Amino acid sequence: MDMLRRLNDRITQSLLVLAAVLAFLLCFLVVADVVGRGAFNSPVKGTTEIVSLSIVVICFLQAGFAIRSGGMLNVDMFVSKGSPRTQSVMACVAALAGLVFFGLICYGSVEGAMHAWTSNEFEGEGAMRVPVWPARFVVVIGTFLASVSYLLMLLQNLDNAIHGRPPATFSTSH
């Protein structure tokens, strides 16, 4: 399981870097579009489509890392008052809920991704048409990795609950 955890951490960190690079490059596209629109009355064609699909890609590339690093929203007002075992049990419940949630999204997204690939689905009209399938497959991959991250958290916290230890705090090495 430790090897799976390290592999998952390495993949999610790599996808985080990819998301950051994509966001950085997207800034240049938006600036070029604004300058082109304002100075030359000629915006960059397809900017709206590229940005809308890129936002989805950026979010789902970061999901696994956000989970593993403890960056997901967490309300522990009542949980923190319990014993270490109770805290670990509640962490198991939360991890199971996250696993089910992202697992269902992953399962439900596969067919849409396959359809976007086989039908050659595009976003936009006219001069610039952007393929949709990369964003759809990133949703599948991102939710799959998020599910794996929650599964790893569930297993670790289950072990902690059995042994009466407090819940694991996950932090990937930077």
Structure description:
This protein is 72% helix and 2% strand. It is mostly helical. The chain has one domain. Strands 1-2 form a two-stranded antiparallel ribbon. A hairpin with a 6-residue loop joins strand 1 and strand 2. Helix 1 runs antiparallel to helix 2 and helix 1 runs antiparallel to helix 4. The chain starts with a helix and ends in a 12-residue tail after the last helix.
Q: What order do the helices and strands come in, and which of them pair?
A:
Elements: H1 2-40, H2 47-68, H3 84-118, E1 122-123, E2 130-131, H4 133-162
Helix pairs in contact: 1-2, 1-4, 2-4, 3-4
Quickly give the structural class: mainly alpha
Count of distinct strands: 2
Helical percentage = over 70%
CA(first)-CA(last) distance: 21 Å
| Computed Rg | 20 Å
Quaternary state reads single chain
Shape: elongated
Q: How many structural domains can be distinguished in the coordinates?
A: 1
Q: Segments where pLDDT lies below 50 for 5+ residues?
A: none
